[in-house]
Amino acid sequence: MARNVFKLTRRAALFGSGAIVGAGGWSYLRRNLPVLDGTAHLATDNREGYLNDASGLSQTPVASHRMLGLADQEDLVGSLREELRIARNNGQPIAVGAARHSMGGHSLPRDGRAVTLRHDWLFADPAAGTYRVAAGARWADVIRHLDAIGFSPKVMQSNNDFGVASTFSVNAHGWAVPFGPAGSTVRRVKLLTADGDLIACSRRENAELFRLAMGGYGLFGILTELELEMVPNARLEPSYEEMPAAELGSAFVNALSGNPDIRMAYGRLNVDRDGFFSDAMLITYRPADDQTGIPVAQESGFVSRMSRHIFRAQLGNEPVKQLRWGIETRLAKTISGSATRNSLLNEPVVTLDDRDPDRTDILHEYFVSPESFPAFIEACREVIPASYQELLNATLRYVMADRESVLSYAPEPRIATVMLFSQEMTGRAEADMHRMTHALIERVIAIGGTYYLPYRPHATVDQFVRAYPRAREFAAAKRRYDPGLIFRNNFWDGYLAEL
Ligand SMILES: Cc1cc2nc3c(=O)[nH]c(=O)nc-3n(C[C@H](O)[C@H](O)[C@H](O)COP(=O)(O)OP(=O)(O)OC[C@H]3O[C@@H](n4cnc5c(N)ncnc54)[C@H](O)[C@@H]3O)c2cc1C
Q1: How many CB atoms sit inside 10 A of residue 340's CB?
Q2: Which residues of 188-226 are buried (b: 16+ CB within 10 A; e: fewer)?
Q3: pLDDT class for 280, splitting at 50, 70, 90?
Q4: CB 407 within 8 A of CB 451
Q5: What is the torsional sign of CA 211, 127, 129, 347?
Q6: What is the pLDDT of residue 289?
Q7: For range 39-50, the mean pLDDT
Q8: CATH ID of 2-32+234-460, from 3.40.462, 2.30.31, 2.60.40, 3.30.70
Q9: Which residues fall within 8 angstroms of residue 449, CB to CB, at 6 or more apart?
Q10: Mean pLDDT across the stretch 333-340?
């Protein structure tokens, strides 16, 4: 029998904290942010002929934008070939995207043809532990299909809005362990090349192209379908461990090497400026004793949506940042309970949406070896609070080595630190973010680490090449497979075109 004891989830704990903040009085919630008077607003207005991404800061002129959805599944390849033909005849670039949550125009072709894929067929093979899925399917679709047959995606990002082909194209990673990036769980893909040929790529067929397209940002062709690995769904229970921040790298390694039953793991760092990145928490999930009657995967519900109040109340408010940390380290661990693997993965981005036209959420992510983690903490402590960016969240994951993809961000096992900043939509904030990102990347490269590519294009080309030593090889291969450079986006234009 399924347990029907009501237990609060991690998200519910956050909601609870919202009520506590409310009880603490309105003055506690007052923001201390620089005034916007006299600043130039960068907000863009979705003008006709332009396309943007989730940052809101990448407005790019496009010649056309075509949505290929459920109605086009029958002849998707025919429609894509037609787009290719028009692009070639007009000398235009083409870029395919899904949710356009990458933040540097990685899915935007300047003056070219943008295509959005949104179709969701899926065929699972439980005996083989794999499924075939449409390139434009979102992870929410995948979870819904797999949940119904007792399975779960092996590796995906922390949110369910993203496209499956996008995940392969940025070679995303998640917090399921012990795995490398998502590409390591992809068996085979179908790719429409610059010549209009639809070919299969895997570790045996067109293997070079498979490794280039994995984390290849759509520059080697259009993915139409993928075959991925899945794992059984399970009911999981969390454990919490607090420690000084600098110890989190080795704590991750120790936890994962000695406990094969850990299925998911993430870390958190405190973000208040006073004690910035001094404390950490490691949260690990193991199978619960009771695996009967596993419930249908939940998306974040009312309680989860409410947690955004405390999350957003941190903005410009140091006491609330401290309060949130206190609640998460003390209250959450005593009241949170089990959840299914699929429910933990089934979180939409919109849960924490800021809904503030004057601000945008900007992510950063850095990958360092567990041994370099204390030096990374030191670098963050010196660089981030010296900016005026508002860091609202820092989450850590452990990523196994990826020695397959050419633009690999984890050539060895890495501790990944994801940071969510709330940035003003102003020129001064963009300049400050640019300066701060540049400084942080420099410090990360100095300790042998890398930064994640799908975020804001604030690294210099020189930093990109130092962080990704195979970048020139990647650009040369692109010119070989796509000599007409038909698959192009702002990532190619801003970084690789120069190499
Ligand atoms: C809130 C948030 C949380 C995130 N969490 C994580 C995380 O936990 N782990 C992580 O690794 N990343 C994370 N990311 C980054 C995220 O994985 C990438 O930005 C990802 O690309 C988003 O998917 P998308 O569908 O929006 O991709 P898009 O931005 O639409 O596309 C990304 C790239 O894939 C290419 N592409 C898309 N579809 C195809 C196709 N059919 N054929 C060929 N190329 C294609 C595009 O051209 C583009 O270069 C997060 C981002 C956000 C905003």
Answers
A1: 21
A2: bbbbbbbeeeeeebeeeebeebbbbbbbbbbbbbbbbbb
A3: very high
A4: no
A5: positive
A6: 96
A7: 80
A8: 3.40.462
A9: 366, 367, 368, 369, 372, 376, 414, 467
A10: 81
pLDDT by residue (tens digit) across 70-89? 777 779 999 999 999 999 99
CB 278 within 8 A of CB 245: yes
* 317 vs 393: CA distance, rounded Å: 13
| Residues in CB range of 221: below 8 A, 6 or more apart | 191, 192, 193, 194, 209, 213, 481, 482, 487
Q: Does residue 62 have a pLDDT over 80?
A: yes
> Is the pLDDT assigned to residue 41 strictly greater than 50?
yes
Q: List, chain by chain if needed, residues with CB within 6 Å of any ligand 1 atom.
A: 54, 95-102, 106-107, 117, 135, 157-159, 162-163, 165-166, 169-170, 172-174, 217-218, 222-223, 349, 363, 454, 489
Domain positions in the chain: 2-32+234-460
Q: Mean pLDDT for the chain?
A: 91
Distance 258 CA to ligand 1 centre (A): 32
Separation of 496 CA from ligand 1 center, angstroms? 19
At 327, list the tokens.
């609640």
